[in-house]
Structures are given as structure tokens and as C-alpha cells.
Amino acid sequence: MCIFVAQNKGITYYGYMNITLSLPEELDKRVRKIAVDRDTTLTGLVREYLNELARQEAAAGRQRREREALERSFEQFQIRVGNRTWKREDLHERS
């Protein structure tokens, strides 16, 4: 996991944070086998999962902001037309 370390004269330095993860032995064996099958490490699997989680969260936030903007525009441009005085059947009536 990359974290902000220092900034000096416009150059940002990044480093890795070590995290201790406690897993039951059986789960550890299963995910290490998955990692070997995918030609990666347990750390690589965790990093990939967390990157995907962060990407999805960012996308969800963007979608939420877009939906809120759309709802505001609907409120702003709302048109009132009065009561409906017709029936659907009347619109599709054939002569």
C-alpha cells in the first residue's frame, strides 16, 4: 500500500506501509494456493483487491455526484403541465 511520505521542492516521495494481517491457518493455506496459481504472492493478492476496492469506491462516488447533479437539474428545469384529462386508450384509439 503506497502512502504519502514527504514533499520536497515539488517532488513527492512515496513509500510502502507494512501491515500485519492475521488469518486463520486454513484460510492462509487456501489463499496462498490461489496466489501460486495466479503467479503472485499473498501480498500481491491483497494489494490487487485493495486497489480494486478503492477504484470501485471512487467510481461509486463519481456516480453518486453525477446522479445528484442530474437530480438538481431536474428540480431546476421542472415543468408543470397540469392534470391529465385523457386516457391511454383514447391516445391509441383506431378509427
Provide structural commentary.
Helices cover about 55% and strands about 15% of the residues. With about 100 residues, it is of the alpha+beta class. Strands 1-2 form a two-stranded antiparallel ribbon. Strand 1 and strand 2 form a beta hairpin. The protein is elongated. The model has no long low-confidence stretch (mean pLDDT about 85).
List its traits.
95 residues, alpha+beta, two-stranded antiparallel ribbon, 3 helices, 2 strands
Query: How helix-rich are the residues, as a percent range?
Result: 40-55%
The residue-averaged pLDDT reads 83
Main beta-sheet strand count, sense and barrel state: 2 strands, antiparallel
E-strand count: 2
Which radius of gyration do the C-alpha atoms yield? 27 Å
- Backbone structural class: alpha+beta
Assembly of the depicted chains: single chain
N-to-C SSE string, H for helix and E for strand: EEHHH
Low-confidence stretches: none
Separation of the first and last Cα atoms: 71 Å
The number of helical segments is: 3
Overall morphology = elongated
- Lateral strand order in the biggest sheet: 1-2
The portion of residues forming beta strands comes to 5-15%
